[in-house]
Backbone:
C-alpha cells in the first residue's frame, strides 16, 4: 500500500482513523516535484547513476564556527505532535528537564542563513531553517556537521530527519496537492505515511524540504548505502497550509 494513516498524534487517542480514499483512483503526475524526487532516489540507490552534483560533506562544527556563531544547549524539542511518533519509532523521549535530555539544541542565525533545531541519537530535527542564495553553507551540510557532533554518529547513522512547522510555500503546495489528488483530509490528529515506490512519495521527496532531507543522505553517506524509504506528514493547524514532515532513512542491502 503506497500510503496509509500510520499513527495517531496522541497515544491512546480515541480520535477515529480518517477515511481512506477509494481504492480505484486516477493516477496523478505531480510535475517537476515528482520527476525531481524520482531522480534523487536513483542517485541515492545507485552510485553509478550520473549527474549527481551532491558531494560528500567535509564540513564540521569547528569549521562552521571559524566563520559563523553557533550556540548549543542541552534541551528537548518539546513538540507534542512528536511524542507518540518518537515512542513508535524508538527515538529518545522528550524531557521537560533539559539535564535529562538526549538532545542538543543548535542555533545558527545570521543574515541570509538560519538553522534552529535539535540533534539526537538517530535523528535530525529542523525547526526553523532559512537559506538565501549566496550563503556560505547549505542547510544539508550544516545538518550533517551538527549530527556528526553526536558521539554516537560514527556507529549510528541518522535514521530520521524531521522538518517541523513547515510553511515553505513550494513545499506546502506540493503536500497539499498530494492530499487533494488522493481525496485526503489534511489531518491534525493522524500521521499519514507515504512509502517509496509511488508518485506521491517521489513528489514529496522532490519538494524543497524533501530535497534538503535527501541531500543530507547523499552528502552524509556513500551513495548506494542509504536512502529515504518512507515519509510521514501531518497538518500542524486545522485550516492552515503548514505541515510537519518526517523522512525515514534506511540502509540498502546489496
Residues:
Amino acid at each position: 500500500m503506497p500510503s496509509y494513516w500510520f499513527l495517531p498524534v496522541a497515544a491512546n487517542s480515541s480520535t477515529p482513523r480518517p477515511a481512506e480514499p477509494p481504492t480505484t483512483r486516477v493516477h496523478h503526475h505531480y510535475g517537476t516535484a515528482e520527476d525531481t524526487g524520482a531522480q534523487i532516489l536513483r542517485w541515492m540507490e545507485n552510485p553509478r547513476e550520473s549527474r549527481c552534483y551532491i558531494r560528500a560533506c567535509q564540513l564540521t562544527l569547528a569549521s562552521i564556527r571559524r566563520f559563523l556563531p553557533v550556540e548549543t544547549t542541552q534541551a528537548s524539542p518539546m513538540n507534542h505532535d512528536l511524542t507518540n511518533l518518537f515512542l513508535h519509532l524508538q527515538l529518545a523521549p522528550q524531557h521537560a528537564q533539559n539535564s535529562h535530555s538526549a538532545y542538543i539544541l543548535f542555533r545558527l542565525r545570521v543574515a541570509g542563513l538560519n538553522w534552529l533545531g535539535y540533534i539526537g541519537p538517530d535523528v535530525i530535527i529542523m525547526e526553523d531553517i532559512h537559506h538565501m542564495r549566496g550563503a556560505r553553507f547549505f542547510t544539508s551540510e550544516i545538518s550533517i556537521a551538527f549530527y556528526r557532533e553526536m558521539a554516537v554518529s560514527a556507529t549510528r547513522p541518522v535514521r530520521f530527519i524531521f522538518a517541523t512547522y513547515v510553511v515553505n510555500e513550494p513545499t506546502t503546495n506540493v503536500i497539499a496537492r498530494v492530499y487533494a489528488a488522493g481525496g485526503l483530509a489534511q489531518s491534525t490528529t493522524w500521521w499519514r505515511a507515504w512509502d517509496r515506490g509511488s508518485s506521491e512519495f517521489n513528489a514529496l521527496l522532490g519538494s524543497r524540504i524533501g530535497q534538503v532531507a535527501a541531500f543530507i543522505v547523499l552528502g552524509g553517506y556513500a551513495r548506494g548505502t542509504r536512502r529515504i524509504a518512507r515519509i510521514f506528514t501531518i497538518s500542524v493547524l486545522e485550516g492552515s497550509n503548514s505541515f510537519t514532515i518526517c523522512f525515514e532513512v534506511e540502509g540498502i542491502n546489496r
In short: The chain has one domain: 27-251.
